[in-house]
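Give me the fold.
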Amino acid sequence: MRVIACAGAGFLLAVLWFDLMFDIQARGRSHDEIPAGIRASISAYYARVTTAARPMNLLIAATMLVTVGALAGEAARGDLAVWRSVTSLVLATGAVGIAAGRTVRYATRLGAATDDARRQSRLARVVLGDHLACFAAIAAVLVLQLLPA
């Protein structure tokens, strides 16, 4: 189970890294509208990864489910210290919950580019924050999984 959990977390961390390469353009613009060129760059990226990439974007959702399942199995089997397996499961479930509950919807809206500049700017900042939180959570999962038992 640990190998599956590590592989899944590593894959998700890589996906988050790619997302952050575009999201980071929204940083430092907490109250201002993000310039049109930056919004266009972020929007084009999310148009590709949320809509144009179908069905490959489903691989990310499947990896999330498999990773959480592997972590749950690991906790049930007692493969690691309880605190490590439970913490890993909580962190991964939290990150998946954020993604499923809001981030994917907001990224899809950014990709559609149908909102006004103010709304797009707000969406981009929220997606950046979500991805930073998820990156930290999944990185922590990977560290907890990779530490010697």
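The chain is about 80% helix and 0% strand.
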